[in-house]
Automatic annotation (TrEMBL):
Assembly behavior: F-type ATPases have 2 components, F(1) - the catalytic core - and F(0) - the membrane proton channel. F(1) has five subunits: alpha(3), beta(3), gamma(1), delta(1), epsilon(1). F(0) has four main subunits: a(1), b(1), b'(1) and c(10-14). The alpha and beta chains form an alternating ring which encloses part of the gamma chain. F(1) is attached to F(0) by a central stalk formed by the gamma and epsilon chains, while a peripheral stalk is formed by the delta, b and b' chains.
Membrane topology: Single-pass membrane protein
Localization terms from the record: Membrane; Plastid, Chloroplast thylakoid membrane
Transmembrane segments: 26-49
Organism in which the protein naturally occurs: Chrysosplenium sinicum
Superkingdom of origin organism: Eukaryota
Name of the protein: ATP synthase subunit b, chloroplastic
Misc note: In plastids the F-type ATPase is also known as CF(1)CF(0).
Family membership: Belongs to the ATPase B chain family.
Length: 184
């Protein structure tokens, strides 16, 4: 450190002219060269450095401002998305409740419809059974009547002679005549 201060002090003791030589004190010459270079850089580079720093500062501020705007936009979109989500959830709940009640209503309607259909089928079955019973009874009656008639005709044909046949015809004619007089 002593050397550095000595070199500044010795600047005032240099001979004014006449001798030219090399200064072998490396610290003194480097310090002088460095101070000259720094002085020139500060004098000429102050504007450039200031402009570079201002540009950099402006870019940082713009980036921060853009980030803030994007953040605010993202927050707004998030709020909108949350509002939309809550709206959709409410709609889904409403559809779910309505869907369950609609399903229950459809289930009851289907059960009632099935009972009515079963009741109608039971009625049709009973009507069909009654119809078939009546048909069977009528067929049996016809056969019994035909057999009875054939038996009676066979008996009449075998038992009747001409005289009995004529008396029966006469009795029937007189019966029909009496019935005709009553109806007139």
């Amino acid at each position: 450190m002593q050397n550095v201060t000595d070199s500044f002090v010795s600047l005032g003791h240099w001979p004014s002219a006449g001798s030219f030589g090399f200064n072998t004190d490396i610290l003194a010459t480097n310090l002088i060269n460095l101070s000259v270079v720094l002085g020139v850089l500060i004098f000429f580079g102050k504007g450039v450095l200031s402009d570079l720093l201002d540009n950099r500062k402006q870019k940082i501020f713009n980036t921060i401002r853009n980030s803030e705007e994007l953040r605010e936009g993202a927050i707004e979109q998030l709020e909108k998305a949350r509002a939309c989500l809550s709206k959709v959830e409410m709609e889904a709940d409403r559809f779910r409740v309505n869907g369950y009640s609609e399903i229950e209503r459809e289930k009851l309607n289907l059960i009632n419809s099935t009972y009515k259909t079963l009741e109608q089928l039971e009625n049709y079955k009973n009507e069909t059974i009654n119809f078939e019973q009546q048909r069977a009874i009528n067929q049996v009656r016809q056969r019994v009547f035909q057999q009875a008639l054939q038996g009676a005709l066979g008996t009449l044909n075998s038992c009747l002679n001409n005289e009995l046949h004529l008396r029966t015809i006469s009795a029937n004619i007189s019966m029909f005549g009496a019935m005709k007089e009553i109806t007139d």
